[in-house]
Amino acid sequence: MSAQQRIKEQVTGHQVVLYMKGTPQAPQCGFSANAVAILKACGATDIFTVDVLADAEIRQGIKSYANWPTIPQLYVKGEFVGGSDIMGEMYQSGELQKLLAS
What we know:
Glutaredoxin; four-stranded mixed beta sheet; 5 helices; 4 strands; about 50% helix
């Protein structure tokens, strides 16, 4: 199975998917730590996370999947939401909480 197929299965098979560096318990970059903190602040509990540092194919593949050059990347209900900055803006406006609650 190609990296693109695996990514598609991950983002469509789970409500909330976060591609990040490291794990929620041990993020390997500040942006990933921030993304996890935002999701926790929104009350999201059922988050499927993918450590891109553990899989080079996924790490490269996810950048082309969403045509987004950076990690972390958040997907909700199969749709690309954005990275850490966009998540922060959406959290501030209340938009992210609504998206995760629906």
